[in-house]
Design goal:
The structure holds two protein chains of two kinds. Chain A is α+β, with helices and mostly antiparallel strands. Chain A contains two helices and three strands. Chain A has a single domain, classed as Mth169, Chain: A. By secondary structure, chain B is an alpha/beta fold. The chains are: A alpha+beta, B alpha/beta.
């Protein structure tokens, strides 16, 4: 069993309106050091395989096809046995 | 001319689309469930608004893998007419049938009100009944309608006259005020505003009727039959 942890974030070149709103909230609470906030997604996927290379290729495929919209999002993932 | 209105779990503008075709054109129209694997009987496919699959992950991200979407791609390839409205537009971008994507509204608010659209291209099969530059009143109802694409794509949209509608007064932060676009060939159109909700003066506007009449005319011209009724 391999566990994949996938992070999907909005590309740096694309404005994240939710992040801006949360940053504003942090500022109004006195956390003025919050320079920027980017909101993303965190996913845990349990894979029924022990082949790390295969898992890597398959998770990349999942990210490209479904988990991220690469027009506006970046993704990265970690594999853990 | 035969219309299909796709129905996904969570579609909620399917009845409006069905009624708009029925009332405006009096042409045959069917609801087609997302599991369908044959759209060959239809000349125009309407992908309605709503919250298909609960908008989980991203709007349209899951629906685009529904069995019927392979058939929509096939129909688009064959040059049949495809119109995605609101969530339907989001599904078509996720499916790669239209470029770009729809982000969260800049205001973070769900915007539900009339908007004024300017017809930027009236040479599209869906817009021939309008004048170029005509302003029409069509309602919006969305939280994720903020159109985005990269600069190269935007230049291409502009060059190929794929920008069909622009907002007069941008309600959601859309790039270049874009409200609706087409594919390069022009037979696939996606838009956030709801023309099917603007087909009767009782609804506040009849300006959406032109889209339905246009597409029937385009189909009839193509099939060299009688004039529009």
């Amino acid at each position: 069993m391999i566990k994949a942890t996938v992070y999907v974030t909005i590309k740096q070149s694309v404005l994240d309106p939710q992040g801006v709103a949360v940053q504003g909230a942090l500022h109004s609470m006195g956390y003025t050091e919050a320079q920027s906030v980017r909101i993303g997604k965190y996913m845990e996927i349990k894979l029924d395989t022990n082949d790390r290379n295969e898992a890597e290729a398959r998770v990349k495929d999942m990210c490209e096809k479904l988990l991220a919209n690469t027009v506006v999002e970046d993704y990265r993932f970690e594999l853990e046995v | 001319m035969k219309f299909a209105v796709l129905v996904f779990p969570g579609s909620n503008c399917d009845i409006d689309c069905y009624k708009a075709v029925e009332d405006t054109l009096n042409e045959p129209v069917d609801y087609v469930w997302h599991t369908a694997t044959d759209l060959s009987a239809y000349d125009c496919i309407l992908v309605p608004g709503g919250f298909s699959y609960g908008d989980y992950l991203r709007c349209g991200a899951i629906s685009r893998f529904a069995p019927v979407m392979a058939e929509v791609a096939k129909a688009a390839e064959q040059g049949k007419y495809v119109l995605g409205i609101c969530n339907g537009f989001q599904i078509l971008t996720e499916a790669g049938l239209l470029p770009g994507t729809l982000r969260r509204n800049m205001s973070l608010k769900f915007r539900c009100h009339d908007t004024v659209l300017r017809v930027e291209n009236n040479e599209n099969p869906f817009t021939s009944q309008y004048e170029k530059g005509q302003e029409i009143k069509i309602p919006i109802a969305h939280g994720e309608g903020n159109y985005y694409c990269d600069e190269a794509t935007l230049a291409k949209l502009e060059e190929n006259k794929q920008i069909i509608f622009r907002y007069v007064g941008n309600p959601n932060g859309s790039l270049d005020d874009i409200a609706g676009i087409s594919n390069e060939r022009g037979n696939v159109v996606g838009m956030m505003p709801h023309p099917e909700r603007a087909v009767d003066s009782l609804l506040g506007s009849e300006d959406g009727k032109g889209m339905f009449i246009s597409i029937l005319k385009a189909w009839r011209d193509q099939h060299e039959s009688a004039s529009i009724r």
